[in-house]
Amino acid sequence: MSGHGRATIAHVNTPSHSLPLPRRSICPRCLRPQATCLCALAMPTAHRTEVLVLQHPQEQRQAKNSVALLRLSLSNCEVVVGERFAPEALQALLVRPGRQTRLLYPDVPAAPAPAAPAVGAMGAGEPLRLVVIDATWRKSLRMLLEHPLLAALPRLSLDAPAPTRYRAIRAARRADQVSTLEATVQALALLEGPGFDAERLLERFGEFVAGVAARQRQFEP
Q1: What pTM was computed for the model?
Q2: Mean model confidence pLDDT for the chain
Q3: Alpha carbon separation from 13 to 16, 17, 30, 202 (Å, rounded)
């Protein structure tokens, strides 16, 4: 929310430490402070696959998080913030009439993927809803284990993801870990084939990473 009115100070002798702090102006579109607004980096990108991002609340507050740029750029991307979901509410999010649902998540020993047919490039009669968990590796696994409806979804896994641009601003525990934006874009390219313009969106993400890295260097000792 953005406050546009001016605060009135009733007493001129009020100690300075008790005065209300000025609110930062927030962009109503990307919901970031105006100083770090992402709107100019958005790359409108058409796609057929619906994208649902389940975002951990701690990621929503991360200036380095990539989902805001993803939401601005994809024409059919829904972001829902939460850590725990009631089964009924989660079912309503996951299932859409006439669409198959896939979870973008690797097959890991702690949460084995259910048996499902392989997913290749989409045909005209196979619309999909792609579910993406936006969280750290540990928190995403916890969300998966705590929600049987999520764990039961057929999986889409990136066997050999392209090298990430994200390491310039955020450490990863595993060599194959990429940002949520990169993983989603690579998955859409796999599902939709050459018709999906992944490269230009990834270039904009590279610009976003470079901007965050530059701001971080300003505060280094």
Answers
A1: 0.81
A2: 82
A3: 8, 11, 39, 53
Q: How far is CA 103 from CA 34, 70, 149, 158, 173, in A?
A: 34, 17, 11, 11, 21
Contact 150, 101 (CB under 8 A): no
3-state secondary structure of 191: helix
Q: Which run of H or E residues covers position 80?
A: strand 77-81
| DSSP H or E run through 51 | strand 50-55
* CA distance to 60, 177, 185, per residue, from 162 (Å): 25, 10, 11
Q: What H or E segment, with its residue span, contains residue 205?
A: helix 198-218
Cβ atoms within 10 A of the Cβ of 144, count? Answer: 20
Q: What are residue 184's phi and psi, to 5 degrees?
A: -65, -45
pLDDT tops 90 at residue 82: yes
Residues with Cβ within 8 Å of 44's Cβ and at least 6 positions away in sequence, in order, are 73, 75
pLDDT in tens, 18-74: 445 456 688 888 888 888 888 999 999 999 999 999 999 999 878 888 999 999 999
